[in-house]
Amino acid sequence: MTPDLLLDTCAMIWIGTDAPLRDDAVRAIDESADLGLAVQVSPITAWEIGMLVSKGRLKLPNQPGSWFNRICANTNVDLSAMPIELMIQASFL
């Protein structure tokens, strides 16, 4: 079985700012949808976006949480589950 597609932070930013995606990225997203697979984004991506905004490296039209939730609600992107162990390990990066 093919796994669900997990978007990285850059893909989420590009989707949320209407920046063009590479053809192979669009194809992967479309194929996932055609196969009935979820297109997911990690909760860590929300944290990364918040950090980019807080450091002035990313400008958004509204608050990061609102922006992130709008992207998830208006696209075929779901928030992926994140095991506690992984969240703790990520805090040491």
Please describe the topology of this protein.
Elements: E1 5-7, H1 9-16, H2 23-34, E2 39-41, H3 43-54, H4 64-74, E3 77-79, H5 84-90
Parallel strand pairs: 1-2, 2-3
Report on this model:
Helices cover 54% and strands 10% of the residues. It has 93 residues and is mainly alpha-helical. It has a three-stranded parallel β-sheet with strand order 1-2-3. The N and C termini lie far apart (31 Å).
What is the β-strand count? 3
Shape: globular
- Structural class from helices and strands? mainly alpha
Q: List the strand order in the largest sheet.
A: 1-2-3
Number of helices: 5
Mean pLDDT level: 89
Radius of gyration: 14 Å
Residue windows where pLDDT falls under 50 for at least 5 positions: none
Share of residues in helices: 40-55%
Major sheet characteristics = 3 strands, parallel
Strand proportion, as a percent range, falls in: 5-15%
**Separation, N- and C-terminal Cα atoms:** 31 Å
Order of helices and strands: EHHEHHEH
Q: How would you describe this structure in keywords?
A:
three-stranded parallel sheet, 5 helices
At a glance:
With 93 residues, this protein is mainly α.
